[in-house]
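Re: [help] complex structure
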Amino acid sequence: MPIFMSPLAFWGLLALAAVTAIYLFRRQSRNIRVSSLMFWSHVKVPAEGGRKITRLQIPLVLVLELFILVLLVLAAATPRAVTGDQLVPVALILDDSLSMSAGSGETARSRALTWLDKNILTRNFVRLTMIRAGVEPEIIGRSDLKAAEASHLIGGWRCRSPYSDLNAALRNVSEICSPDTRVLVITDRPTQQVLADNISWLSFGQPLANIAITTANRYALGDVDRCFFEFVNFATAPARLQAEIVNAGNGTVLERLDLELAARSHRRVRLSVKDTEAEIRALVKNDGIDYDNQAWLLPVRPEPVRVELASLSARLRPLLERTLTSSGLAAVVASGSHLAFFEGAGEITPVSGRWNFVIHNATQPVTVRGSVAVDKNHPLLGGLPKVLAAWAFDRNFSVAGQPLMSVAGVPLLIAAEDSHGDRTIFLNLTADRSNLHATAVWPVFFWNLLNWRQQANPGPIQFNYRSGMEVKVNLPTGVKNLKVISPSGREAEIQVWRRNAGFIVREPGIYSLQAGEMNWKTAANLNSVEESDLTGLQTSLPEIELASGDASRYFSDVRWWFIVPALLLLILHQWLLRQGRPGHVY
Amino acid sequence: MHKLIKSSIEAAEIAGQRFYLNVSSRFSGLQGGSRFGRNTGNSLEFLDHREYQPGDDIRHIDWNAMARSDRLTVKLFREEISPHLDILIDASLSMAGETFHKGAATMALAAMLRVAALNSGYTVSCWLLKDRCRKVEAATLPLSQWQGADFDYSGNVGETITSFPPRLRTNAVRILLSDLFWNQEPVSVLRQLSDGAALLTVVQVLAREDVAPDFAGNVRLIDCETAEAVELIADESLIAEYLRNFTRHQEYWKKCCSKYGAVFTHCLGEQLLGDFVPVELLKTEIIMTRS
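Output below.
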């Protein structure tokens, strides 16, 4: 709809009345008596008698003249409208967090959609960029959507993210949109930030009472697993908490809660679960906001690293066996190991998927006691205490790989990787002339080794996540895709890169992972105070006029919209006058 | 009678004294009569000698002259004529018109013709064409004294002529004075009028507004006979279209007159009333100026 810069030109519409008056005046026919009408051909015969009302016969020429006048007046009023590339750029940052969908019936999302439908998505002069602000900002569709397209695509805004990084979305907008873009942040809570002029913060929330599980954690402690849950009453009034903690495998109720929770108070529950393979589930039964009423804790104990020590000498084997066993991460096996220990590189027989650890014994070692250069960024050496041991080593030892520890230019520890990703670690140590095994470096180093190897086993690195975290999955050689089934049943194929795949868990619940014949499960728990505490939600809708102020410069002169049709009508008018039959009343 | 018509008749009767009706055999027929014509004929009054030409009546060969001169000579005698003029006047409303110029000119022309005919020794009958063809009994009276000579008929005069033909004298000169603004096939009218006539002349009497309509813009044209009205936007093209139609009608009458041996001419009322000289009629030599 164009706007008119010179509304005074509308006084020109008075010309319509003038033309009509002239027409009506001229239509007052003079009576002329003639001898005969026989030569006045092509006459318009007046209406026959018998009709009381005769329709006013408006000649086409007059109608054309009036149209032309109207068009010229409109053109004179300097119409301006948003056309083509001159659409007003608007960026919508849509809060994708779960709190936007909180509430029974009307939610902040539904209110926001209603407002957007009324104020933005029906405006044809806007060019929209819609950004879903979840864990990471994502553009919905393209960055230059028409209003109708945006209206169609906005259904992709489902508010399933565990949190909303609105600042990241704002940064994203500043990078991908022009500085004159009008930015509308659609969320459910107000902001204390000082906003730029082109940013409008619209909150559609309403305070809600909510009981939520804000923490769920599980860890191995000896022979049992310890589970920890926290229930919080996010309300300004006391509320009843009815909850259960169950073994989801056999349905056994491990803990039942039925108590009164004061306003904004919490109840923490700690459990020791002997069945380390049990899947534990906590459920709040008397709360209407579902997304934070459940928590899942899957078994946390990974498969122990199978270690093969058969190649070691009788001196080293007990030492290493004791060290590895005491870590709790390894199981000594005779074959089919994940990690095999050797004394001397010559004894290695390559096996796919197996790592090798070679202890290089020198016949005439050199012993040092002093500083050892250590690459502490390597997984093998993280948390390693200062090496103050006597270290006997072969000063001529050299092998291809990444030196991780060295002294005086002589490598003490080297990590090498073959083309299949299998690693071989070389330790330049003559154990019977050293006392490294008597220092704190020894158990830490081997714990790191086993942990590193364990993390390289196929399967997720861990099993219980907070929503929004990235799940990393190790996969065996040859697997190209990881199939992920979300709690809501949506399937996704994740591409494997260098035997690793990763994805972010957004939706709380149990995720199924499939890679060939292998299956795993991981749990994602919301564990978010920000999303569960709905008492601070507010509605705040500042007045927004997209076509005002600076936005008016997107309006271009569209006088031609009226002048061109006026010229065409003028041509038609002339054609009718020239081509029409003489005396025919048009 | 409208005073313009009356005054025009009086002026025309005076002006008519300057003219006479052509009395040649071409116009008066070949039958004998009580008056000598200006051409040679069959009377007993000798006129002249001339050499024989093939086709001459051998009874007129002057044998004595042949004996004297040894040349075949014929005697010429003056023609003997009995001329009569029938004036048929269209008395429809359209002849009066808005200004009465056409009616006045028609009656003036009739008066002139009557006087010219009397000057030539013609007998004259006048007919008023209305719903019937009514003969004006007192034709010897001046036209200004005629009774019922009003242009008040609103019907089709052509239809009257074909349906109720006047009992016209044979071998008479017949002159029809009309604007011919009626929807009747000219052939049927001319056939009726030319039957037995020595000469038929059709004089189309027109007013200036008939030949050059002078109006523009929105007009409501009213047929003065039928009172039918039409609304038009008069412009140049419309006038041109009217003139094309009018000329086509006139040309068709000319063509039909030619077919029936009739003479077609026209007379512009305003012009005639200006000087009382029927220029177009003089060109046809139906009437001639007295020397």
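Residues 330 and 440 of chain A are 19 Å apart (CA to CA).
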